[in-house]
Design goal:
The chain is an alpha/beta fold. The protein contains 18 helices and 26 strands. Belongs to the phosphohexose mutase family.
Length: 536
């Protein structure tokens, strides 16, 4: 058994190590700076306190991106030096975000890189912890690291044992899919999602391995912009004609927590996806056969889920952006299914969004809808399911405009302008009618504020909302006001319950509200941008 000593390494703070909703994410070139990773890891240990770190078990893994394996070795050595009792590492250092949550719950009870810290429930750390981590990053003077502890072979499963000043320290390299499996035509892009996809869809469910594709070298983001090969294969490319697309396609991102669902020549919006899963869960997914405890969505996500909850008499929650808010509801037994517009969907089987689970949920719904016509007749398709849903619940036409790296002062002024407008709804409606007479009246406008029904904590300034009489919405959110500029996100949602109007082109249906949003906010005046950076 190898012995190690603890070294104290002097350091100074780095600016900007403030965790977001799910950890710290920066370019690789930032993380590989000397002491940068170590500072953040030590700040995390310091924020938790010795009583929660010493003798604890830590899960450390990544999604296979560059620098992941180096980071795993560094974090393992720092864990040993800080008194952690054991570290669990997914084989080859691979473990998706949902699988991490599954491992914690089961065992305990590309050019971007990031660190996420999850709590004992398997969910993201709450704001109280992330704020304390950030405070520590601004004052850190030293970090601890094990000296004499060799790099662990993470390619082979097994336990390695060491002895340090505070006693025994074990590193357990384990099969990264087994615990996840206990709680659960697909494209995994590339990253750790592909490891789980092969085990689940090929080895467990008997799918042909040719139905799995690795989008090697591409940016692992499951959306219409970056999953170009899948989009083309499903017959949705504007430049490439696909004569015979598959009936079903899906993509997950590099760490397996986000997802995109497609049918033959048909795209399912994330907001519709979570609503359709909730509407069909009890009948189609055995896990929910006893009923749903409740449903929840992030505030910017369309209100499609709200309508389902009302029809089915379910508890409904609208929360700020950030998966930790869903986790609180789930721990309290108040929520079974949740989702967000940024391609995240999940359930209470774990405390993270889960891309592969969402794909399995859709396959279960397809199987249920086709249980009486397998082998004969036309299959009920993804498009059929979505259009049937719209016929019952109405359609929420939806788009998001991102204005990235705009002048931070201009972005703040735009948001202040929108808040000021809210002081008089009558004046807002006069302005709107002057822009488009065919747009409904605003009936409520505010800055979204959330009081957690579980712990009573309050989250303020979560976005500016304009709610219309016909159920439509405009939402403006500001993120990032650092040296690289700010990002303004504009969410535009037009609700249509007239069944004769639910088949319109989305951009055509949204055009009046888009015009109102841009002119009401004076977007071009404040940002000097004539068009958004990204439209989704």
């Amino acid at each position: 058994m190898a012995n190690f000593k603890v070294s104290r390494v002097e350091t100074t703070p780095f600016e900007g190590q403030k965790p977001g909703t799910s950890g710290l994410r920066k370019k690789v070139k930032v993380f590989i700076q000397p002491h940068y990773l170590q500072n953040f890891v030590q700040a995390t240990f310091n924020a938790l306190g010795a009583d929660r770190v010493e003798g604890a078990t830590l899960v450390v893994s990544g999604d296979g991106r560059y620098y992941s394996k180096d980071a795993i070795q560094i974090i393992t050595k720092m864990a040993a030096a800080n008194g952690v009792r054991r570290v669990w590492i997914g084989q080859n250092g691979l473990l998706s975000t949902p699988a991490v949550s599954a491992v914690v719950r089961e065992r305990v009870g590309a050019d971007d890189f990031g660190i996420k810290y999850n709590m004992e429930n398997g969910g993201p750390a709450p704001e109280g912890i992330t704020n304390k981590i950030y405070e520590n990053t601004t004052t850190i003077k030293e970090y601890l690291i094990a000296e004499g502890l060799p790099d662990v072979d993470i390619s082979t499963t097994g336990v390695s044992s060491f002895e340090g000043p505070k006693g025994k320290f074990d590193v357990d390299v384990f099969d990264s899919t087994s615990d996840y499996l206990k709680l659960l035509n697909y494209d995994a892009l590339h990253g750790v999602a592909g490891v789980h996809a092969k085990r689940i869809f090929v080895e467990e469910l008997g799918a042909n391995e040719s139905s799995l594709e690795d989008f090697g070298g591409g940016h692992p983001d499951p959306n219409l912009t970056y999953a170009k090969e899948l989009v083309a294969r499903m017959g949705l490319s504007k430049t490439h004609s696909e004569p015979n697309p598959p009936e079903f396609g899906a993509a997950a991102d590099g760490d397996g927590d986000r997802n995109m669902v497609l049918g033959k020549r048909f795209f399912v919006t994330p907001s519709d996806s979570v609503a359709i899963i909730a509407a069909n869960a009890v009948q189609a997914i055995p896990y929910f056969s006893g009923g749903l405890k409740g449903v929840a969505r992030s505030m910017p996500t369309s209100a499609a889920l709200d309508i389902v909850a009302k029809h089915l008499n379910l508890k409904f929650f609208e929360v700020p952006t950030g998966w930790k808010f869903f986790g609180n509801l789930m721990d309290a037994g108040m929520c079974s299914i949740c989702g967000e517009e940024s391609f995240g969907t999940g359930s209470d089987h774990i405390r993270e969004k889960d891309g592969i689970w969402a794909v399995l949920a859709w396959l279960s719904i397809l199987a249920y809808k086709n249980k009486d016509n397998l082998g004969e007749g036309n299959l009920v398709s993804v498009e059929d399911i979505v259009r049937q849903h719209w016929a019952i619940y109405g359609r929420h036409y939806y788009t998001r405009y991102d204005y990235e790296n705009v002048n931070a002062d201009g972005a703040k002024d735009l948001m202040a302008h929108l808040v000021k407008l809210q002081s008089s709804i009558d004046e807002v409606n006069k302005l709107i009618k002057g822009i488009r007479s065919d747009v409904s009246n605003v009936v409520h406008a505010d800055e979204f504020e959330y009081k957690d029904p579980v712990d009573g904590s309050v989250s303020k300034h979560q976005g500016i909302r304009y709610l219309f009489e016909d159920g439509s919405r405009l939402v403006f959110r500001l993120s990032g006001t650092g040296s690289e500029g700010a990002t303004i996100r504009l969410y535009i949602e037009q609700y249509e319950k007239d069944s004769s109007k639910i088949g319109r082109d989305s951009q055509e249906a949204l055009a009046p509200l888009v015009e109102v949003a841009l002119k009401l906010s004076k977007m071009q005046e404040y940002t000097s941008r004539s068009a958004p950076t990204v439209i989704t």
